[in-house]
Write the structure tokens for this entry.
Amino acid sequence: MSKKILFPLIAVFSLGVAAGSLGCRAEAKIGNAEPKAATPPPPEPAPPPTEEPKAEEPPPKPIKALGKAKIEGNEIKIPGKVHFETNKAAIKEDKETKEILQTLVDVLKENDQITKLRIDGHTDDTGTSEHNHKLSQARAEAIIEWLAKNGVDKSRLEGKGWGEEHPIAKNDTAANKEQNRRVEFKVWEIAGKPTDAQKGEATAGGPVVDDKKDAKPAATTPKK
């Protein structure tokens, strides 16, 4: 009787030990699994391309004066008078007038860095303001036409009539009125960039003039 009972107990014990052994092996297998490799960090972004420093533009060539012309600041001054018909914009073809205008042509041809020349026309205070503005504008444009016909690219020229707005002397004597009737040649752009004359006028709202009585303008006209 006791032998019969012992056999099943041994069998159960053996199965229990076998199952325990399998469990230990299974747990050991799980515990010894290799860890997963860590995800590598993303690559660092490439540095932005280094910009090469821009080469500085060379300064424009100095303006070369020819003949009797002088370069004073941003103005081409030529002694003498550009003569017009009285109260008209027609240019007189006398020797002095042609010498002044031809000198201006030569200066512009020699100095291609002058990309814009402004011709300013001025009158005295005789007559109405409207008439004086129209007359001074027409005279500036007449000079532009003369220069263009003698070889200057018209795109380099600009005219402005100021009438009696900017005298250089009081309009109280014939001599002073004579000074106020004038044309001026302003270097307006160098290599496409505005000169100080252009910048100054934009700030002041008009040309900066010397109002001394003994002023001698670059080119003046006779009676209006």
Remarks:
- The first strand starts at residue 70 and ends at 72.
- Helices lie at 2-31, 95-110, 129-149, 174-180, 196-204.
